[in-house]
Amino acid sequence: MSVLQLTISGLREELQAQRTSAVAVTRRCIERIDNTDDQLNTFVSRCDDSAFQDATAADVRLSAGKAATLTGIPLGLKDIFSTKGLRTTCGSKILANYVPVYDATVVERLREQGAVIVGKLNMDEFAMGSSNESSAAGVCRNPWDTNHVPGGSSGGSAVAVAAGQVVAALGTDTGGSIRQPAAHCGVVGLKPTYGRVSRYGVIAYASSLDQVGPITRTVEDCALLLEAIAGYDPCDSTSVDCPVPDYQASLRDGVAGKKIGLPQEYFIAGLDPAVKAAVDAAVEVYRGLGAELVPVSLPHTDYSVACYYLIATAEASSNLARYDGVRFGVRHCTGGGLIDMYQQTRSAGFGAEVKRRIMLGTYALSSGYYDAYYLKAQKVRTLIRQDFLKAFEQVDLLLTPVAPTAAFKIGEKMDDPLQMYLSDIFTIPANLAGTCAMSIPCGFDAAGLPIGLQLIGKPFGEEEMLQAAWAFEQATDWHTCRPTL
Length: 485
Ligand code: GLN
Known about the structure:
It is built from 15 helices and eleven strands. The protein is 38% helix and 13% strand. α8 links the parallel β7 (259-263) and β8 (292-296). It has a single domain, classed as Amidase signature (AS) enzymes, CATH 3.90.1300.10. The structure holds glutamine. Residues 127-130, 153, 173-177, 205, 312, 424 line the site of glutamine.
């Protein structure tokens, strides 16, 4: 089977039956990376040696019959996850030399299962962006057309999965950073409910919004990887202590009789006709599967982007205060005192988008403006959350586009931050509401670029959302399409 089609579920069987070995699969992924990464620029750091060590250990475990789901599966990690002994830059010059002394909880959970970590993946600097263009490591390219962006901020994670460099990857999603690149690269991406997955050891952008989630080739893989990373962690006080369901067990339960809401505010004028057509066709697929599609309203949707860019930047300005040249990363100092050192370090270390957001956030939090901006945005956030909770009194799930257009060209929106921010108009609300949402492939535009369908579930309703995603995937074959490189 082509390396482009390998899945966790398929490989797990092959590995456990010893028809292939973890070392052999890892070698195939590494060869694929060698052959494609010049074109794609997906990896910020590779760790081939430790990957082969992981694989060798996995093979021992497999032959002892002690394998877990992920034993021997080659995975990639967004460069935002702390990895012990492995450089973690978060896409920034300021962390160019940062080597963590511990693993993030999610990384620890993957390692406990015996997964093979292949390397660290490109991303927008500090996860701020929708195109991967703000990365200090340079843009990473869309495998369907390398003149186009892969989406962001988890662009490298989506590209690595779409291009067959790894079997699956982890990303983070603060305003759409898993779902939007997954949509743009034709793969599956899931943002769990806030609190479902530990954020311990994940470099913070906006702490009340950040969540970790899987990017995979199939819905089943997404269920398996989510189950591996989900659950309470005493090291993250926002992780919720409630049992993790067996997501895979209930995948086949179908959508007959389910009520799926179509929020009218998401089917707006700026929506690209090809995206609209693909989403309309998906609605018909669900109707054919026995679901009931009903119109709903999320009346405060219009305020989401403004609300997000106040809250996210405010939290970022506070989180990024720690990069001062003292404890973490690179220090720049050409003389002067302590304040000069801070100034030189931060001026040289942060890129333009990160600086813009630190300034916006600092302003929104400053005395005299706090009530007018930050506090007001928090109140609007509550209204947005209430819109979702009200909608979920009537329906089981919501169905929307992931992004207004397919992947745009590299450079197209770099001079216009507002246009860039608007590419997250359909993904941001679920983060503000704290609920779960995912992206699944649902078609292509005329240029052959993938289009994503978004399903939004109830808080902690990942199980029901994955069932609906699986039903769609079985009824269509978009998820089997792969880019040629
Ligand atoms: N694109 C959005 C932003 O720039 C979302 C990023 C994210 O989810 N990390 O903030």
